[in-house]
Design brief:
single chain; 437 residues; alpha/beta; globular
Length: 437
């Protein structure tokens, strides 16, 4: 017969075991999740283009191919490389250098592949042109999410580039998912929303011919409408186009510049212009370095098939992937802007307070901001304003040009409106993004 002491000990052990059971169960439940990620990564051999299935929501039945280098970086960047019409993910892999550059810098490359008969990406349907609306953008977003989970990727370094139809999809993805992609590079594309159709057609002849023109503000509003209410950082954009493009004609290049400078809230006047190669003209907007908010490369005498060896390295320089480190943004926080408005039926006044939050003095300033749709400035004080609508630049007066570190200046304007009396939400000081609030 057990002694009372032993009985007590056994009871205590049973109680302890019972208390541990929920913890053990939780550990057993949690373990497969981590194991599944490891298993998914192990299922993709290194340095080999591999198809991945069951990667997530995929309403348009895209196929997904992935390339992972032998020496993949810790928390790697993700690059989505999008093919042209009649092409495929493997064609994009074979026709570009992103895999060999991934070997050098340790990032992961995803190659979406269309299965519909045209082999063109959907950049025209209403579903494709809004966040989580359906069609191809949703499938590509699922690919990114899969890669992020599988490789513990850096969600702040997800990029997209594409050629022709892939360039148009690059524009679409940056509009639909500005919180997912840090930057894009579009080779021979059209603006976000330019190819929109409502009859089920994949082709928009007016846009392809370059006859769809809008103001910068209109293009910017079209992009912002894809994700209403989003107020976060917008992706940077690099644009490439040949002057003799007879498929997606050259006027689309200027329309994309208008669109993305407005989305970024930077001046449409280039901050820098140069010729990095014979017959190339490169303009940079909102900054002068390799990672300006918008960069545009025009290729004189070149047609639609403009992509060539060496261009991928320039894409990586723009993305910041040629160093393996995180992409520096255009000095956010160097300035702060606060706006108050007083509106009536058809008019308003706005008081704008600009603060230099950097550690260096500003001698001469230009404050850029997109004026909300339907507003037109009729007069102002403390600065000169031009143009009166769209992407506006306020230039200092002679008496307030100098801003010491921590100093502020107040300016203002009066404007007419057609029902929208909102204050501007994005600002740049001499091409550098400001915080607002």
């Amino acid at each position: 017969m057990p002694t009372p002491h032993r009985t007590t000990v056994r009871r205590q052990l049973r109680a302890l075991f019972a208390a541990l059971l929920p913890l053990l169960a939780a550990l057993l439940v949690a373990a497969p999740a981590a194991g599944a990620r490891t298993e998914a990564a192990d299922a993709v051999p290194a340095a080999t283009l591999t198809e991945v299935t069951d990667f997530g929501t995929n309403p348009s039945n895209l196929r997904m191919y992935v390339y992972v280098p032998e020496n993949v970086a810790a928390k790697p960047a993700i690059l989505v490389a999008v093919h042209w019409c009649t092409g495929s993910g493997p064609d994009m892999y074979n026709g570009t250098e992103y895999d060999t550059l991934a070997d050098q810098y340790g990032f992961v490359v995803l190659y979406p592949s269309v299965t519909r008969s045209s082999k063109c990406f959907d950049v025209s349907s209403p579903q494709a042109l809004r966040r989580d609306g359906g069609s191809d953008p949703v499938g590509i977003r699922s690919m990114v999410d899969w890669a992020t989970r599988t490789y513990d990727a850096d969600t702040g370094r997800v990029f997209v580039t594409g050629i022709s139809s892939g360039a148009m999809m690059t524009n679409v993805l940056l509009g639909d998912y500005p919180d997912v992609f840090a930057a894009g590079a579009a080779f021979a594309g059209v603006p976000f929303g330019c190819f929109a159709t409502t009859d089920g057609s994949e082709w928009n002849s007016a846009c392809a011919q370059g006859t769809v023109t809008r103001t910068a503000q209109q293009w910017g509003d079209t992009t912002r409408a894809a994700y209403p209410g989003y107020t976060g950082t917008r992706p940077r954009m690099q644009l490439w186009h040949g002057t003799e493009d007879d498929v997606l004609r050259y006027p689309n290049f200027a329309e994309m510049i208008k669109q993305w400078t407005n989305v970024q809230g930077v001046d449409q006047t280039p901050a820098a212009t140069d010729s990095p190669q014979s017959r190339w003209t490169r303009t940079r907007y909102g900054g002068t370095g390799d990672r300006a908010p918008v960069e545009a490369i025009s290729l004189q005498g070149v047609g639609h098939d403009l992509y060539g060896y060496g261009m991928a390295a320039r894409v990586l320089a723009f993305f910041g992937l040629d160093s393996g480190g995180p992409t520096p943004q255009p000095q956010p926080g160097a300035c702060n802007v606060a706006v108050t408005t007083n509106a009536w039926n058809t008019g308003l006044t706005a008081t704008v307070t600009l603060t230099n939050t950097s550690s260096t003095s500003v001698n001469g300033w230009r404050l850029g901001f997109p004026l909300p749709t339907g507003q037109t400035i009729t007069n102002g004080w403390g600065a000169t304003y031009a143009p009166s609508s769209g992407a506006v630049t306020a230039t200092n007066a002679s008496y307030n040009a100098a801003l010491a570190p921590g100093a502020s200046v107040s300016i203002g304007y009066q404007a007419n409106h057609t029902g929208n009396s909102a204050a501007p939400r994005a600002f740049t000081l001499n091409g550098t993004a400001c915080t607002a609030g």
